Amino acid sequence: MKKIKLSAKEKAIENALVKGEYRSVSQTEFQSIAAAVARRKKDAVLNIRVNRQDLDSLKQKARNLGVPYQSFISELLHHYSV
Questions:
Q1: What is the DSSP letter of 19?
Q2: pLDDT bracket for residue 43 (50, 70, 90)
Q3: For a tag on the chain, would you pick the N or C end, based on fewer CB atoms within 10 A?
Q4: What is the pTM of this model?
């Protein structure tokens, strides 16, 4: 039998599963989670010109949070559009 090599992310998921960190959810809760994930789907492209200092500042804030700066900007836009 061929042994499958897991990535670090896959190993982390496997370890969490073994530790019981995942739980079953009702169909209603599952649909709610699926809807939330779908709302976060990025399906449009935006090109925008901004001041270099503003962009550098946003990149630094994203770096401090440990997230990609484009995702950080996307989250900011989402937060202020609702």
A1: T
A2: confident
A3: N
A4: 0.56
